[in-house]
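Listing S7. Sequence submitted for prediction.
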Amino acid sequence: MLKVYTSSVRSVLEYTVPVWQSIPGYLSDKIESIQERTLKIIFPCADSYSDALELARVETLAYRRDI
């Protein structure tokens, strides 16, 4: 499921980075919540979003956007 997410959903979210790179924080949080909800589905045993990120070995979208 992680591979499906990273190849189909996350790629679309990252494709639009030039458009939403300078949007207000509350909109950026909404976009980040897509990844958070997906990781909760993939890793229901994770206690927090940061734990799910570690299990998936991915970074937050905000961090990847800053790079």
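Caption to Listing S7: primary sequence and predicted structure tokens for the chain studied. The chain is about 75% helix and 0% strand. The first helix runs from residue 2 to 15.
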